[in-house]
Amino acid sequence: MRYVGAVSDADILINLAEANRLDILELLFKKIIIPQFVYEIEIKKNARIYYSTINQAVYKDGSIFKIVDRKKDISVNILARDIIEDKKKVIGPGESECSGYAQALRIPIIISDNYTEFKWLNEFITLTHNNILALCVYFREITKSEAEDIFNKINDKLDHPTEDTFEDQYNKALIRFERNGWKRYLGI
């Protein structure tokens, strides 16, 4: 199952780049929109040595990643601007940009590992790398063992790693999809 697209924040791309597994996104999405602000400010500032990994994925032939600059697209800017400004009152600038782009481009999925801000993005389907790994396993794109390996590589590098196993996160993801009413859209 491949979804039409998602809008991506910086943290999830950095985490997947650190695990050398940005390719996981290609298993689930036909395109990943990266807001210009997220790419130019947040990824360049925070990705450190993994910036080149992300940059290579963005610019390789046939890439699913597309950087969109709302300031160069008047219709996207008009549709996104008010939402971005409204969201900036409660969440960070990266997630605000993602919500504006998602609304303007009619893409219901935002991917981000900053799950603490998801409560202000409840009009969207918000997926973390753990959720994406769970979906890849559910659709048999990767094995549970492979997902667990990726999960552990990312978790080991986080400032605040979870004590959960991948199995715990897999089950939590499926419960979250059910609780939020996303199962039908996600094809589960």
Q: What layout of secondary structure does this protein have?
A:
Blueprint: E1 6-8, H1 10-18, H2 24-28, E2 32-35, H3 36-46, H4 51-59, E3 65-68, H5 74-87, H6 93-105, E4 109-111, E5 125-127, H7 129-138, H8 144-157, H9 166-179, H10 183-186
Helix pairs in contact: 1-3, 5-6, 7-8, 7-9
Structural notes for this entry:
The chain is α/β, with parallel strands linked by helices and 188 residues long. Helix content is 55%, strand content 9%. It contains ten helices and five strands; from the N terminus they run E-H-H-E-H-H-E-H-H-E-E-H-H-H-H. Strands 3-2-1-4-5 form a five-stranded parallel sheet. The chain starts with 5 loop residues before the first strand and ends with a helix.
Provide tags for this entry.
188 residues; alpha/beta; five-stranded parallel beta sheet; 10 helices; 5 strands
Helix-strand topology string: EHHEHHEHHEEHHHH
| pLDDT averaged over residues | 95
Radius of gyration: 16 Å
Helix content: 40-55%
Question: Looking at the structure, what is the overall shape?
Answer: globular
Total beta strands: 5
Question: Could you name the ranges where pLDDT drops below 50 across 5 or more consecutive residues?
Answer: none
Reading side by side through the largest sheet, how are the strands ordered? 3-2-1-4-5
Report strand %.
Answer: 5-15%
Number of helices: 10
Q: What is the terminal-to-terminal distance?
A: 10 Å
- Secondary-structure content class: alpha/beta
The major beta sheet can be summarized as: 5 strands, parallel
